[in-house]
Design a protein that fits this description.
Shape: globular
Order of helices and strands: HEEEHEEEHEHEHEHHH
CATH topology: Rossmann fold
Largest sheet: 5 strands, parallel
Radius of gyration: 18 Å
CATH architecture: 3-Layer(aba) Sandwich
Number of strands: 9
CATH class: Alpha Beta
Length: 230
């Protein structure tokens, strides 16, 4: 009976914790699609940063394009004079290297953003690396506050990481994208984001020693769902 009681208690705690995290993820997602408001710092320069996503041999994926287009709109509205693109590299099935930041830069230039207004922020293979890069650019270049552009479901994790690093960030995302406009894909991404948020809440010293395929798995399943959408 003690074992059963302990199991039930552990299950209840896990379910409760998951529900709390899900609520935080959804609330941050909803705020991310509202018009952003930056707190201007007299000693800093505001900057937009675009978090990377899948890129293909043909260029940025549709989800990444929705982020880039949103960042371009914010830039044209005059919210910041600089767009930083952050992302990683990957190798496709044919062994070709795909560079997210190169494709993001090319897309922005092709769509009217001056090359001199674009900077590359590396490392940026994941959320933690990109936010750490933002912290470094805040210290070295006085770029702050930050207007972080990503898919809305990503907002909670960015905000939590920014708080841990100690930088001022507002998250803004497109209200409509391949993920947000497809209910079952959005539900899947929200579930993955709850798990990722819980993982990122662990001490960095522990996560640095714990390799997880979560990002790769999430991307691959997300790609499958989008390809097979009816």
């Amino acid at each position: 009976m003690r074992v059963l009681g302990a199991l039930l208690t552990s299950t209840a705690i896990a379910v409760g914790t998951g529900a709390v995290l899900a609520g935080r993820v959804v609330r941050a997602e909803r705020r991310a699609i509202l018009p952003p408001a930056l707190r201007i710092h007299p000693d800093g320069r505001p900057a937009i940063i675009v978090f990377g996503a899948q890129t293909l041999i043909s260029g940025p994926s549709d989800e990444l394009i929705s982020r880039l287009d949103h960042a371009r709109t914010l830039f044209e509205q005059g919210l910041a004079p600089t767009i930083v693109v952050s992302g990683g590299t990957s190798v496709d099935d044919d062994g070709r290297t795909l560079d997210e930041t190169a494709d993001m830069t090319a897309w922005l230039i092709d769509h009217g953003v001056p090359a001199e207004a674009i900077a590359i922020g590396r490392p940026g293979d994941n959320t933690r690396q990109t936010v750490a890069t933002m912290g470094r650019l805040t210290r070295e270049k006085r770029l702050h506050p930050w207007l972080a552009v990503s898919s809305p479901f990503h907002a909670r994790r960015i905000l939590d990481e920014a708080k841990r690093v100690g930088i001022d960030v507002v998250v803004s995302g497109p209200g409509d994208s391949p993920v947000t406009s497809t209910p079952h894909i959005r539900r899947f991404q929200l579930l993955m984001e709850v798990l990722a948020t819980a993982y990122y809440a662990m001490p960095p010293t522990l996560t640095a020693r714990t390799r997880t395929p979560l990002t790769s798995v999430r991307r691959r399943i997300g790609e499958y769902l989008i390809r097979n959408e009816e």
